[in-house]
Amino acid sequence: MNCPKCGYETGRNRRYCDRCGADMAVTSRLYRLSNRYYNEGLAKARVRDLSGAVLMLKKSLENNKYNIEARNLLGLVYFELGEPVAALSEWIISKHFVPENNLAEYFIEKVQSNPAKLDAVNQNVTKYNQALAYAKQGNDDLAILQLRKVISSSPNYVRALQLLALLYMKSEEYEKAKRCLLRAQRTDVANTTTLSYLAEVELMLNPEGQPARPERNIEGVSYQPAASAISFHEDKPNYIAFITFFAGILIGIAVLYWLIVPTVRSDVKTKYAAKERDFNAEIATYTTEISVLEDEKVVLQDKLTVSEKKIEELKWEIEALSSEEEFDVPGFENAVLVLMEYAELEQKVLLAEEEKKPYEVLDDLVAYGEKLRVNENGAMLRKKTGELYQRIYGEVAKRVQEYGYDHGHDLYYDKKYEEAIPYFMAAYKMGGTDPDTMYFLARNYQRSGDEENARLYFQELVNLYPDSDRAEMAHQCMDGLQ
Amino acid sequence: MLNYEEELAKFQPSLEIDQAEEAIMNNDLTDLSDLLEQVVTGKKERR
Fold this sequence. Notes:
The complex is a heterodimer. Chain A is an all-alpha fold. Among the domains of chain A are: 25-113, Serine Threonine Protein Phosphatase 5, Tetratricopeptide repeat, CATH 1.25.40.10; 118-214, Tetratricopeptide repeat domain (Serine Threonine Protein Phosphatase 5, Tetratricopeptide repeat, Alpha Horseshoe); 433-482, no CATH class. Chain A has helices at residues 25-46, 50-63, 68-80, 84-97, 103-112, 115-137, 140-153, 158-170, 174-187, 192-205, 226-229, 239-322, 329-354, 362-377, 383-413, 417-431, 435-447, 451-464, 469-480. By secondary structure, chain B is an all-alpha fold. Chain B has helices at 4-10, 20-25, 32-46.
């Protein structure tokens, strides 16, 4: 206890100052009053009546500003209420009065040892002030947003909870307001503002005066010695964030493997399947062409075999001739030459037929046929040789008639009448006088303007085949001639 | 019924860290003992 006159520190229960002898009765009384208020404040703090504790502790300090216990407790209560600057102020002042062996030093060190936490607390105060400014300007939504951030960070910030509850009450969200007020009540049980707001909210939620729900059992709190009074939670490494991050990576890989990779594979398969189908189609086409060509080859080989057979037969006949009586050597040599020429002509005919142009060998066939007729009428003929020539001539003539008629017919329908005449003429001369050949021969003459020859062959047709259809057509054509 | 505007006016801004020094310096630490001393000193001066 300090003497009010000389400032000398005397014992607590001294009536007079040991140095100056001043009456210490009043000072002593003030000190006792301060202690009494401190006890009241401590009792209230123990039951979490923090607002009441603040009042009592302030009164205690009004009576004795050197009451360090009261000042330290006041700082602690401010800190619990979410007012860090007020708390630090009290502790710093406490340390100023009593620099050594002061619990305030421990509290200050504890707060300053975690700058991140202190900064976070300061940020909350800034946001609270900003929210209050928004509310006073009428921007309730912004104020609510800010306050929700503050409360999520400092859940025991009583003033922020009360302001948020007020804003909810204004927007008639009474349930939310009630939740905020109950949280505030958990921190400070007898706060008059909280209690009055709660009463208002209960009234709005139970307008018919129904019995209110039983209050939650709020645990009291006891003032702990400094060693365990403040518990700061140091920031632990956020394992959950790492686990979530790696889980996300694993899920992404799993999705890639089970959803995307099969799709890509099936697309590749489809593409190659399409290419495979195209290649198979091409192969099928080539196979078909090969098959057709092989068939043609077989046909041509058959024809060649037939021709070779004929030649072989003719050779045998020649050999047979050579054994006959009165064998004619020159005639025999001539027959051999004729046969050799026939074999060569046969090859030419086969090639022309392969190229679908048999009419190209027509002149060769006609010339060969003429040669056969000369030989036939030549000297030193024998029966067998004559028969051989006739047989060969017959086949040549048949071919000439067939090729000449077909190609001449094509030229006739292409209106190439003058070109068609030689073909029909060859067919007529060597193939015999069939009515169709004679008719078209005459017709070609008629179309190309040679009416004299036209009449000649029409008349021959009528004479040789008077009852045929071609004869009647010939009559009609002749009527059109001049 | 609560009056919203009246209740809102009761809320005051909280002190921030950078305002701590100013708040400490402006803190009135006069207690009843100081007042008593002033009273005693004043009486003596008036004598």
